[in-house]
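Below is how a single chain appears once it has passed through the pipeline. First comes the sequence as given, then the structure the pipeline wrote out for it. We keep one example in the README because the format questions we get most often are answered faster by looking than by reading.
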Amino acid sequence: MTAPTHLLYLHGFRSSPASFKAQRLAAWLAAHRPDMHWWCPQLPPSPRAAIALAESGTSDWPRATLALLGSSLGGFYATVLAERLGCPAVLLNPAVDPARDLAAYIGEQRAFHDPQQRLTFRAEYIDELRALTPAAITHPERYCAIIAQGDELLDWREMTARYPGAHVRLLEGGDHALSDFDTHLPHLLRFLRLTA
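Resulting structure:
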């Protein structure tokens, strides 16, 4: 795997570019790899629109040196794009079956980082998630998954089973947000060949 020159970060459900993981990674890149092209867009609630935004925004990026990072629902999106584009992806507690898990969230939702902001998650988005789901992980060696057994929202067994043969860092405790993200940053940077 070649070290990336372009990184796309995909945040989770009800999250935003203000995610502390996105902010920490952006700060590290600014300090250590200012040459890196970094993009963390605000994703729309529609899964189809989120993927379309990511694809259009990276359409002129070099495929050979593009990498993806995704957290939770963003991990699902990163998987969709990695399978389409053939690029490496780092997944942070990735959603495995968001069509099932997000069915309980249909309706108006508050954004995590700005409770004044609302989003509407529509029933048809469940079908969009189903349509996007890759049939299989074709090149597990392209994936690095950081999975917390203490995740209070997603089952670590399902996450691990979804990525057989991938580089999995399974944490004994932890939480869905990966509050101790700083301790895992060196691992994902090494996987992406951004550090020795």
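The helical segments are 20-32, 47-57, 73-85, 98-101, 124-132, 156-162, 181-191.

See the next section for the split statistics.
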